Amino acid sequence: MEPLSSLSGRQRAAVSALAAAAEAADGVAPLNEEARLQLGREDALHWLATEGDTVVGYAQWQPTNATAQLFVHPGHRRAGHGTSLHTALVADVAEPALWAFGDLHAAQRFAASRDLVPARGLHIMERAIGDAPGRPVPDGVTLRPFTDADTDAFLAVNAAAFADHPEQGHFSADDLANRRAEDWWDPAGLILAEDAEGVVGFHWTKRHPGNTGEVYVLGVHPRGAGRGLGGILLDAGLAHLAGTGATRVILYVDAVNAPAVALYERSGFAVFHTDTLYRPATRD
Description:
It catalyses: 1D-myo-inositol 2-(L-cysteinylamino)-2-deoxy-alpha-D-glucopyranoside + acetyl-CoA = mycothiol + CoA + H(+). Acetyl-CoA 1 binds at residues 70-72. Keywords: Acyltransferase, Repeat, Transferase. InterPro entries: Acyl_CoA_acyltransferase, Bact_Acetyltransf, GNAT_dom, Mycothiol_AcTrfase. It is a single chain. The protein is of the alpha+beta class. The chain has 2 domains: 9-114, 3-Layer(aba) Sandwich (Aminopeptidase); 126-273, Gcn5-related N-acetyltransferase (GNAT) (Aminopeptidase), CATH 3.40.630.30. Helices cover 31% and strands 30% of the residues. The chain contains 8 helices and 11 strands. It has helices at residues 9-26, 33-38, 81-92, 105-113, 151-161, 173-180, 229-243, 258-266, and strands at 45-51, 54-62, 67-72, 97-100, 116-128, 142-145, 190-195, 198-207, 212-220, 248-254, 270-280. The protein has an 11-stranded mixed β-sheet, with helices on both faces. The longest helix has 18 residues, at 9-26. It starts with 8 loop residues before the first helix and ends with a strand.
């Protein structure tokens, strides 16, 4: 099984249909947003498992994030396709890390069979959106929506706020442009906090179909630490989502990011599942 540097339109459609079938069976999407965007770009490697002309399994390697994603159609599992995809992946990528979204029992068994161990947890938290008043904005700080002129300032604050984050820390102008091309993009939903020195924080919200909104990214520049801006921006974003008709909100946060988890718990969020990144077990 050879890797592909890009997918044809037919292949992209087949993988999308495959992902929809897996999500319907498992209750969790097998690909994250970045992986879905990579289906139409040339920044990743792709492997397709087939039976005849039918795509029954898929794997993707993202060099930028140094992680992989792999899944098999629910009607074609336990037939060796997952093992074949992983074998092909490790033939081209040394010791790849592999995401398991929802960390389902089947994924845990597969990881154990391939000598993979948990290395990172990503909590998905949720809460209802109420009508509680937002925390007061301190003097000298204003909140406003994003404009095109804010691109460089936004990217600089994001880079500073997530300097140690394995994915968000290298979010680029191209990444921003790709998100702005998505149907859900709304500049009013990217709320900036600005002080006398410029943009100091932001809350980027995302509206999903139905009644769900998302705390897509919330970041504060280190120079703004200790001023309560995280909570203020969180409240502003929740108010914006409520104004769009959302009644439920979700977010993703690294399990080891104790300050962020604590902020969200104080704000009424609770974990409803955790995605797990598996890595090859180290040997002494």
